[in-house]
Each structure stands twice: as structure tokens, then as C-alpha cells.
Amino acid sequence: MKIVAIVGSLRKESYNMHLAKTIQDRYEDKMEIEIADIRSLPYFDQDEENNPPQSVKEFKEAIASADGVLIITPEFNWSIPGVLKNALDWASRVDKVFIGKPVMALGVTMGKLGTVRAQMHLREILAAPGIQAKILPPGGNEILIGQASQKFDDQTGQLVDEGTLSFLDSKVDTFIDFVKSI
Predict the structure, then answer these.
(1) What is the Cα–Cα distance from 157 to 22, expressed in whole angstroms?
(2) Half-sphere exposure in the Cβ direction for 92 (13 Å, CA)
(3) What global pTM score does this model have?
(4) What pLDDT does 39 receive?
(5) Pairing state of beta strands 32-35 and 134-135?
(6) In this predicted structure, what is the pLDDT of residue 71?
(7) For residue 166, what is the enclosing H or E element?
(8) So what's the pLDDT on residue 159?
(9) How crowded is residue 33: how many other Cβ atoms within 10 Å of its Cβ?
């Protein structure tokens, strides 16, 4: 199964990127995960949407050819970061590569609530007419990792909290079944 992970943080030591890499390593026998490059995407420009830069074409092709998408977002001012919104804006135009695509939302933060507000906003965005992704339904499927500094190894960057890993295992299996069902 081919999955694209979109990480909404550009920070070098981002816990959200560490989560993406943990998932990439931990579930390599279940999914082939490519981490998309959103750093190279220019600001969305409607004047260029019909002939976008190569980085945009590659980003959209990665999504179009994937069986599913993981969107891993931090929370900035109770929402998703601008770089993630920019990437979603590019993907929502012209060929609209997210339509019908299975998506799982995840997020890591230093606070106690995980990325609950960002993920609520993300769900609204993913329902927009130009995106219409098939997001894994809420109701126990939310992956909201709070207090990150206590759950990731400082040396390796890997998620090491056993309770969180156990929960992640069950939700990844749920997502795999969800992708297969679509």
C-alpha cells in the first residue's frame, strides 16, 4: 500500500516530522510511506494553477498516485500552519487530487490537548468542494499526541511512549482497513 505523508511543519526537529518518520519505520511492512516535500512549494498563485511549477506537479502527482494520505499537523494559533494550508490549496485546484482520497489526520504538540483545534479545522478544509477527501471518521480515531517532550526520544526522535504506540498501532490498522474499503 502506497501512502503519502504531508507534514505541516518545516522545523528541523519537528515532533510532527518525528512522528512521520516513526510511522514510516514502524509500519514499513504494511505501508510504503513517502514524506512529501511541502517546503519547496511556492505560495499558491491562481495565475499559475494551470501551469504550476515542477515542485507543485510532483507534489500533486505523489498524492494522485497514493492509495491514501497521512496529514500530520502541528497547531498554530488554534489552526493548521500556513505552509500546510498552502499545500492543500495547490492540491485543490485544476486536477483536484484529493477528491475521494482516504486521509488520516494526526498531530503532535507540546500542550496537553494535542492538536485538537487544528484537526477540527483540517477536517473542515478537507470537506471543501475542491478537496472532498474521505477522512477517517472521528469517534476514537483521532491521533492527538500531547506532551511531546515526554513521548519522543531526544536522541533518535522516535516516538517511544508505549501507550501512545499501542494506540497508534490500532489506529494505523483502522486506517489501512479504511483505505482498502474505498
Answers:
(1) 8
(2) 18
(3) 0.97
(4) 97
(5) unpaired
(6) 98
(7) helix 162-181
(8) 98
(9) 21
